[in-house]
Amino acid sequence: MSTMSATGSARSAGRGARRAGSRAGRNDWVEKAGRFGHLAKGVSYALIAILALQVAFGQRGQNEDREGVLREVAGKSFGVFALWVLAVGFAAYAVWRFANAILDRKNKGSDAKGLAKRAENGVSGAVYVLSAIAAASLAMGSSSGSSGNEDEQTAKVMEWPAGRWIVGIVALVFIGYGVMNVWKAKTQKFRRDLNEGSMKASTRRWTTRSGVIGYAARGVVFAIIGWFLGKAAVEYDPQEAIGIDGALAKLTEQSYGTILLALVAAGLLAYAIFCVVQAKYRRM
How many CB atoms lie within 10 A of CB 9? Predict the structure, then answer.
């Protein structure tokens, strides 16, 4: 009898801890951080898309990833203020992601599927912490927040024990993430996170379209990054490693490259619009 009582008490304590964590994760400040973070995320993707479109139509000589975009912003008259706003936005987005991962705000649970989803939130949070650091560093007049060239980073990792395996695993993660984005576009599962009941019919229609196009474009970009990371691991050639800018550049090297780049850039712009819509209508 005492054993059963102890087991019941432990289960009750566990449920109580989960409820307490869930309540903490649902605090207004976490929700506000998530909404502001989605705005910053949307702005960053819009800047990447616009600069890529300029490349496609011959107005610029190179593509840009997020950190390249931040350096571009830093050169403007309003640059310092904009960088600080983006830094705070990226940090806010990271906080929201970490809250989802640690406090399980979405009630994903602790089974394999739930833990995988929570881990995805944690990884995304870490990425946006780095983006926040990059923006803040540039705002303070330092380039130390930039991660440098992808081939240099990959070369350093390859020097580690089992470094090529690590790069190969990261490549598979990128490819898998790309496929997942395309799957989201095909199935429109992203709609589950939206409070569509609060939208007008026209808003719901265009939100769905921007989500489908945006996720498909992101899927293509991340799959290209993963492919070339994998190639770097197999061929032991760090120079094959690329980032978002490199993935967009690879498109220009193909037949009808300008058209492909313009289409993907337009897709990223659609994703930026979708992020802004999420800032208002996403279930946080």
Answer: 10
